[in-house]
Amino acid sequence: MHLNWTLGRLHELGPLDVYDLLALRSAVFVVEQTCVFQDPDGVDRQAHHLLGRDERGDLQAVLRIVDPGVKYAEPSIGRVISAPAVRRRGVGQELMAQGIVRCRGLWPGQGIRISAQARLERFYRAFGFRTVTEPYLEDDIPHVEMLLEPEHAS
Question: What burial letters (b/e) apply to 68-93, b meaning 16+ CB within 10 Å?
Fold first, then answer.
């Protein structure tokens, strides 16, 4: 599946982009995962948002790249979602690969930290992330922090 990628801060995105990304995040994190939490958490204002749209213009994938010093010392990637209709088609892998490239382009030479749902550790390990904390609960879902070393590290 070919996706067209857009990266921007909230104020750089159009109103429909912002609506679509919040709607997809709500559909997955709140409804599908039955987790009541405040998704627009203030961090969105200090992040770049990566949107992947299909040929019809439908939003199929989204993540946010958070500035260093907001959640962690390093830049971080979070709110990683592929739409239910496109799962198991490589969209999540493409989304994460694009996110890592964009994050490294914004902050070269820095590591990337994530708070990953524990059930997805294997997925993130495939990109080179390693688990750096014991499991903890975030919004009643087991998570772990994972770190991707800077590119120049061996």
Answer: beebbebbbbbbbbbbeebeeeebbe
